[in-house]
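Study the following:
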Amino acid sequence: MPPLFLYIQVMLLSIIEKRIKALGLQLPQTTAPMGAYIPTIICGNMVFVSGQLPTVNSIAQYKGSVGDGISVDEGYQAARLAALNALAALKSAVGDLDKVKRIVKITGYVRSAPGFEQQPKIVNGASELMVDIFGEAGRHARAAIGVSELPAGVPVEIELIAEI
């Protein structure tokens, strides 16, 4: 039998956090903004999460352009990590991810090499993660936009809007 404190920790996890753990993932620590903005803002029953990067402890895990040094699969994984960071920011704002009624919209910015046209495949990393975690409430509207540069040289940035 696991120690009592581990049992209590598992019991305190929200349903959504249990799903995240079941996927073999964990919410990262939130990081400080890279500019003059705040990570989230709550307006009525909507939470707007500023663009999040594929970082761990503020260190970029991927650098480069998709289609030139970053493969489609790496871009997909980068979007997934950025989306996990967005969920950490969302949790920080609302306290418990079980308060999320639905993911309303994701906007994905993909640093793309000239001629690269598969931005939707990259942003699927974020979109599919939301469905894996929230089920039908994770299905959302979306934009997948190709850009020439992103902060810290990362290949993807994800922002989201959630209803609470």
Q: What stands out?
A: The beta strands are 40-43, 46-52, 55-56, 59-60, 65-66, 69-70, 102-111, 141-147, 156-163. The longest helix spans residues 72-94. Residues 55 and 61 are 5 Å apart (CA to CA). The mean pLDDT is 93.
